[in-house]
Amino acid sequence: VYGDVQRVKILYNKKDSALIQMAEPHQAYLAMNHLDKLRLWGKSIRVMASKHQAVQLPKEGQPDAGLTRDYAQNPLHRFKKPGSKNYQNIYPPSATLHLSNIPATVTEEEIREAFTKDEFEVKAFKFFP
Known about the structure:
The protein is of the alpha+beta class.
């Protein structure tokens, strides 16, 4: 949401911690700014700058080899184009969702049902013209 993730390494001796390498430093800053101290599953998460400049890929056969993933060539990166409009849509986490590209034939009831069938509560709903 805040940038293109290049690599992720879950720490071998501390599996509740990870190093996440973003494509650009300002993307890492956005993630830190919006996610540090956020409550997730009842716990406050910490997001801070690492002393490491890059997440190193493990050598073949190392015990932590399965804990590191490289996403540098992933085609799903949203920010790879210079001047991407995705930078205009960066906000802190919120309980409000913005849905778009909904066919005109879909009703409010159908959208509410899509969420409530999985036991999510819809507190308010509004279609924009």
